[in-house]
Specification:
Helix content: 55-70%
CATH superfamily of the largest domain: ABC transporter type 1, transmembrane domain
Strand content: 5-15%
CATH architecture of the largest domain: Up-down Bundle
CATH class of the largest domain: Mainly Alpha
Order of helices and strands: HHHHHHHHHHEEEHEEHEHHHHEHEHEEHH
Strand order of the largest sheet: 6-7-8-3-9-10
Number of helices: 20
CATH topology of the largest domain: ABC transporter transmembrane region fold
Shape: elongated
Bound molecules: adenosine-5'-diphosphate
């Protein structure tokens, strides 16, 4: 992924790292030369003019020049390195985030947003994306560690063969301890994903505009903040425990390895005293030992981090590997499937049983009914009866758990999804308020009409909000929503009408309309107006309206009464009134409450 996202940066960083990584070993060797030359000179006694030494002792001259030159080079490359890193990090993070977002966008169903397990993965993915950027540092750190480590191993071995072995041996347990610590931390992080999500939820409640009013009116501030804090401390405590254990284990092993590292040092000092080593050697070897240890430590740290990132990025790959349950056959259907003349069968809901993903509780328990061509069907029933759920299935936001829905005899699952959705115009109960211009809020209903001012104007008029365009100086380009700079916030009713306009724009291609409680935010006068619009556009196509306002149901050709996830009555208003059952009862109760 890194190589694909930032090939140029990666190769440049690798190149610079070879230089900076090898630098310290060479510097050490050069200072050994300087010291050895100097100790020779010191033995020869003082000289009158220091300049003569410089000009006659070319080794000293070159070693000094080399040291300075190398320092400069290392300095320059480290600076360039920082810039390259920043660029690499941004590229990698952007690429990974882009991939994740693209993946989420390809999900045709909305199960991803409703199942806690999947939401946890998404949550962890966010963390993973944050860590991926560290990958670049670690890659280079590992490289640098190796490059400082390997030459020092060779130099140390030239001192005595057991020295590198000893140094590696005493560091090995640290690697193991470090990895164990990372693994434990990550396990905590995974188990705390839900806690993190809860923190997000309460954070959003405190920051979010939607909740601001009621939180204040009901004096819920303290509750919200303390909930957030509780979740925070819960996560923190779990982490702190693991951190403490890790710190103790790592401190212990680093003491051991530092004690071990003192042995070769003693060995060299004794060697100098006994005349086996020069003073330059002591500079070189103590440097090497320090460097080898530094290299090893860097390797361990990077190894640990690398391991950490491997764990943290797992959810990203899990998400990228996730296959949407709701799939679309690639091929389009013969055009006559979509015909909506009277000899077609329309939409048939057959023995549909449905439980939301991740739940065993069936919300729909064997639903049967039909929407014939040009027919308007009202779904009515008490709250929680399953009307909205059925509406979502009719838009194929989910597939039935059992049973099927057919469009002119073809199972929904055999229809190309985009084409199916193009045939459906929906106004949702929880319609979207896109933080964008008025034009796009409406135009996104049918993208080919996005730039057709007349078409947009027309549906706005039909939905009864044409005034919006005139009221605001920017007209269709008026930004909507408080999130946007200079954004205009609309009233609930106006937002709903904008959502209705969006769906009306689709009427050119839509054969099925689904209106879910389309008048919830409207007063009775406005409600009647919307009913009329609705009645009007429903003519000549199939329509399903979900409403517990039976005045709207009364206008439908047929009424389907749902109770506890099943159809209990079905027929026209008059038939159901004559039946004197649940519908008649509901209608009489509602009618009396309007008087
Ligand atoms: P209605 O529209 O008739 O009021 P709904 O279809 O909204 O009823 O809800 C029917 C049942 O489905 C309710 O008991 C509700 O709790 C449950 N339900 C709705 N949405 C979800 C969901 N995303 N996940 C799980 N259960 C859900």
């Amino acid at each position: 992924m890194v190589a694909k996202a930032a090939p140029r940066e990666l190769s440049q960083i690798a190149f610079f790292n070879v230089m900076t990584g090898a630098g310290p070993a060479v510097t050490l060797y050069l200072s050994k030369l300087v010291i050895d030359e100097l100790s020779l000179l010191v033995q020869q006694g003082p000289v009158a003019d220091w300049r003569s030494v410089i000009t006659t002792d070319s080794t000293l001259l070159w070693a000094l020049a080399g040291t300075v030159g190398l320092r400069l080079l290392v300095e320059i490359t480290s600076t360039v390195d920082i810039l390259l890193f920043a660029s690499l990090r941004d590229r990698v993070q952007g690429a990974v985030q882009g991939q994740v977002l693209e993946k989420i966008a390809t999900f045709n169903d909305i199960a991803l947003f409703e199942s806690p397990d999947l939401l946890n993965i998404v949550q962890l993915t966010q963390k993973g994306v944050g860590r991926v950027q560290r990958l670049s540092f670690m890659l280079s750190g590992t490289l640098k560690g190796l490059l400082t480590f390997l030459p020092s191993v060779l130099l140390a071995a030239s001192l005595d063969w057991w020295i590198p072995l000893l140094l590696i041996g005493i560091t090995a347990p640290s690697i193991w301890v470090e990895m164990r610590h990372r693994r434990r931390s990550w396990r905590v992080e995974t188990t705390q994903a839900e806690t993190s999500r809860n923190m997000d939820i309460y954070g959003r409640l405190i920051r979010g505009e939607n909740f601001a009013k009621e939180i204040r009116l009901f004096s819920l501030q303290q509750i919200m903040v303390s909930r957030w804090k509780n979740f925070y401390f819960q996560r923190f405590r779990a982490m702190a425990e693991v951190r403490k254990e890790g710190a103790i284990a790592m401190a212990f092993w680093s003491c051991i390895s530092n004690l071990g590292a003192a042995l070769p040092y003693v060995f060299v000092v004794v060697g100098v005293v006994e005349g086996r080593f020069t003073l330059g050697d002591i500079a070189l070897y103590t440097g090497i030992i320090a460097q080898m240890q530094g290299g090893l430590q860097r390797l361990i740290a990077n190894f640990g981090e690398l391991y950490d990132v491997t764990l943290a990025t797992k959810p990203i790959f899990q998400l990228l590997d996730l296959q949407p349950e709701l799939t679309s056959p690639p091929q389009k259907q013969a055009a006559d499937i979509w015909k909506s003349d009277a000899d077609q069968t329309g939409i048939e809901v057959q023995d549909v049983v449905f439980a939301y993903p991740g739940s065993d509780v069936p919300i729909l328990k064997g639903v049967n009914f039909q929407i014939r061509p040009n027919e308007m069907v009202a779904l009515v029933g008490e709250n929680g009866a399953g009307k909205t759920t059925l509406g979502k299935l009719l838009c194929r936001l989910y597939d039935p758990t059992q049973g099927s829905i057919y469009w002119n005899g073809k199972d929904y699952r055999e229809l190309e999804l985009r084409e199916l959705r193009d045939r459906i115009a929906v106004v949702m109960q929880d319609y979207a308020r896109f933080p964008t211009t008025l034009r796009e809020n409406v135009g996104w209903g049918y993208q080919p009409s996005l730039d057709e001012d007349n078409a947009i104007q027309e549906v706005l008029e039909e939905a009864g909000v044409a005034r919006l365009v005139k009221n605001y100086e920017l007209g269709l380009e008026t930004p909507l929503g408080k999130e946007l700079e200079d954004g205009v916030d609309l009233s609930g009713g106006q937002w709903q009408r904008v959502a209705i306009a969006r769906s009306l724009l689709r009427m050119g291609t839509a054969d099925l309309m689904v209106f879910d409680e389309p008048t919830a935010a409207l007063d009775p006068k406005n409600e009647q107006e919307i009913y009329d619009i609705f009645r009007n556009v429903a003519r000549g196509r199939m329509a399903v309206v979900v409403s517990h306002r039976l005045a709207l149901a009364k206008m439908a050709d047929r009424i389907v009464v749902l109770e506890h996830g099943g159809v209990i009555e079905e027929g026209s208003h008059d038939e159901l009134m004559a039946l004197d059952g649940v519908y008649a009862d509901m209608f009489t109760r509602q009618a009396s409450s309007y008087v």
